[in-house]
Amino acid sequence: xxxxxxxxxxxxxxxxxxxxxxxxxxxxxxxxxxxxxxxxxxxxxxxxxxxxxxxxxxxxxxxxxxxxxxxxxxxxxxxxxxxxxxxxxxxxxxxxxxxxxxxxxxxxxxxxxxxxxxxxxxxxxxxxxxxxxxxxxxxxxxxxxxxxxxxxxxxxxxxxxxxxxxxxxxxxxxxxxxxxxxxxxxxxxxxxxxxxxxxxxxxxxxxxxxxxxxxxxxxxxxxxxxxxxxxxxxxxxxxxxxx
Amino acid sequence: xxxxxxxxxxxxxxxxxxxxxxxxxxxxxxxxxxxxxxxxxxxxxxxxxxxxxxxxxxxxxxxxxxxxxxxxxxxxxxxxxxxxxxxxxxxxxxxxxxxxxxxxxxxxxxxxxxxxxxxxxxxxxxxxxxxxxxxxxxxxxxxxxxxxxxxxxxxxxxxxxxxxxxxxxxxxxxxxxxxxxxxxxxxxxxxxxxxxxxxxxxxxxxxxxxxxxxxxxxxxxxxxxxxxxxxxxxxxxxxxxxxxxxxxxxxxxxxxxxxxxxxxxxxxxxxxxxxxxxxxxxxxxxxxxxxxxxxxxxxxxxxxxxxxxxxxxxxxxxxxxxxxxxxxxxxxxxxxxxxxxxxxxxxxxxxxxxx
Amino acid sequence: xxxxxxxxxxxxxxxxxxxxxxxxxxxxxxxxxxxxxxxxxxxxxxxxxxxxxxxxxxxxxxxxxxxxxxxxxxxxxxxxxxxxxxxxxxxxxxxxxxxxxxxxxxxxxxxxxxxxxxxxxxxxxxxxxxxxxxxxxxxxxxxxxxxxxxxxxxxxxxxxxxxxxxxxxxxxxxxxxxxxxxxxxxxxxxxxxxxxxxxxxxxxxxxxxxxxxxxxxxxxxxxxxxxxxxxxxxxxxxxxxxxxxxxxxxxxxxxxxxxxxxxxxxxxxxxxxxxxxxxxxxxxxxxxxxxxxxxxxxxxxxxxxxxxxxxxxxxxxxxxxxxxxxxxxxxxxxxxxxxxxxxxxxxxxxxxxxxxxxxxxxxxxxxxxxxxxxxxxxxxxxxxxxxxxxxxxxxxxxxxxxxxxxxxxxxxxxxxxxxxxxxxxxxxxxxxxxxxxxxxxxxxxxxxxxxxxxxxxxxxxxxxxxxxxxxxxxxxxxxxxxxxxxxxxxxxxxxxxxxxxxxxxxxxxxxxxxxxxxxxxxxxxxxxxxxxxxxxxxxxxxxxxxxxxxxxxxxxxxxxxx
Lengths: 243, 355, 562
What we know:
Chain C: Its main location: membrane. The complex is a heterotrimer. Chain B is of the alpha/beta class.
């Protein structure tokens, strides 16, 4: 398998409860996986662990059979080749869109950089916005820049933390579709966390339901959430349906 | 990337050491000169910082070719610094405006005994340390100042008399934190004994017109403002006020009379500013020359006059202003007791609640 | 699910790589530098901490019996009253400026920091000069109107007077830190409160105060420490505080043990306050990590409200800056020419040099330590940097002695090196400016660190994480992301330290090399001889340079897009 997470455990200091409890998962190349759960279920923590922003108490991550972390190895975040789109994007306010994207491309030559920036901007359909500053963009545009920035260095894996939480509903539906197209077009393996079943349903190849840091259910969207569009059950917080 | 961080640290260190070097190189010519010939400088730690002092140091350099390097500071802190620097100290001369501190410097073994015929000639014996560890350079008297309109000089006699009920709510004096008050009480411990001195302090506190605040000048102003009628203060502050640029201050000073207390008994309290040669002095000869110069007739006039103090050198006349206040009998006690009794004085102040 | 199969060679390679990795790890480089810096800042304080364990002697018993109680009481009153008033004034002004548009707002925005340019002891002398019997107010009443009012009404040499002085000249600490926080961080919170139908008064008490708590505590703890540490004002006003006790036992009783014991108690008190603040804060993180830094749109005030806002700002500015400056100018004119003026340029150069170097080093150190504190998890990493603030709580003279001792030790240690270099005397560093500057750094690190720390708090960690996930290491991230984003905090920290060093007295007096005068030593020299009018010239230049620094930096900041 392309990505293999084994037995991941983590608890925050000063707490007894495990935030992530024996979490294991494998992902094939180019697949989009959604981790679905209520807030506090540990889903964002998993992303931070994979990214290297927190240190797991136990467990391992291998990408293409290379160890990213286990009980002996711990690669620094910048050495992992993992991209991330933050909940509120974390676009560097003192840099233009171009510079934000260029930031992750320091290993490329100048010409290649230019080309790559152009490519990813085209991918997210923001060719004409290269010279804008983040605060001059709308929320949707900012999000697309964040995705472009994360994709640009060609990471093995992209992590998206509640990618739609800051967007209005109409935009959400539109961007959901776009995002799936972008990810699929770029053939990038990705994990995104969300609390919204609609997001998961529309975007993911696989869905993991997480409860108290543990996997509660796992499967294809149609299997897991039923064939019916989940928007009908959206009114009330959906109870988990077993596989 | 680690390099970048190291670079930052290196720059920080370089900046620090650069400013270290700057002064080091500045000193360099002097140091080499020191080796080549007899040293041509003297290092002075002084707690006196009048502008006229600097002019005198310049004059000294013109006369002798010896450069005076100065660190000005507060007496106690300078003493502490000399102590910490120990044998390596660069200080040659310690100059301060209170005999108590000179005593303390001696007591802690920071000074050395120096003899010079010229010094003996210029500084009267009672203004020298018993062991010639320090020499007085100027005199200041702590006197009673009164409101000319409400107080007749005949009503005044001694410091002790100010504790009479008659003066209830009329006496002004600054806080006990001040060294002049500490030395005053220390002198009473010598002349009257500890018990009586304590009674005096307690009695004076009972007669305070207000809680002590401000400096000596502020006591004078408080008389003019009618808050109290008499104040204990140093003469030279009145001299400064009479010569102030501010006409209002001159007006205040002119409304005040000056009274030298205890003329029939123990004499008016006198303190000195003075200097001693530091034990580890590297330029001892130059240091002695500096003391000789500062007590010489040439310097004494200016040295004392600038601050309306009395010269110690008998051959030098006080200024017209000081003469107009008249001559007076001084306390006849060895000045070193001021330092001896200083701690006792502070404890008494605390006990009687003199803020 | 696929098990990772590793052959032995691969494992060894990875392990080897890990050890190297560990040695060169950026986190560790930052940790090492930060720990070294903190150790340097702590070391002198250790002499004092050790004093708390020394056995008590007669002097200690005497002080405890007669004076300590009243010293502590007075200190607490001064701290409490000054703390409350500086928060009230600083916060209200910060909120007005951050949220409203009214006449002169853009001017007041930076002008309200100007009172910081006046050293409290000069402010104290100046206000006493204005209010006393020969001062302009009483003289005018007396001579102009023939009114002879009770002079006691004008007496400011008491505890309320000292609180008045401290408040006027120290409130900018609270104001500047809170204003920057409010104008950059609070937009969404305040707007949402508005949307919830809250009026301005409710917003102020229910939203502004709670969310600015970190900034308020940061600013007011500087004020409290400054008050605890001040000697000039209380000495002149005849108020006996804890610091008085330290000096009394040291210099008066010649008992340095008792004075160090007192200083150590003071330090204990400061640690207690810092801990209490930490405990109150608990696990709550106070970065509202919305990474969209959005300025708060201003509400335009009209009519009497605008008039009141402008009037309030101008009143504080007048009391804290304009009035004292006019008085200083008046005195300077009266005494002009009585003091040799040609040397002034040298004093200015000396002052600016030491202040500039110290501020630069402090900011660099603060950036390193601040970065360490947010990189490394755990309580120690959060608490240790807080403790460097202790340098700020100890009276300057006590720090001076600790620094002299340390430098003489250092010189002894380096003596062989000096001999090697052909330097003939044994004291090199301890007679150089390096000693003075080191003391400044120990003393004022807290000022710079506070500013930098709140800057780090404000930008949070998402930007840093984003950068690292784009393959950029910690150190590069620091220079390319953190430093540019911290620009505001760096500049304001620099100004605060610069001005503080410019005003500093006891350290400069004790630790300076030969023939080294600064503006503040010159001003103090005259003031301590009760020649306040002669002191006005140097004071005025201090105020002028500080004010200029404030203006220049604010203009610079305004040009930058926020």
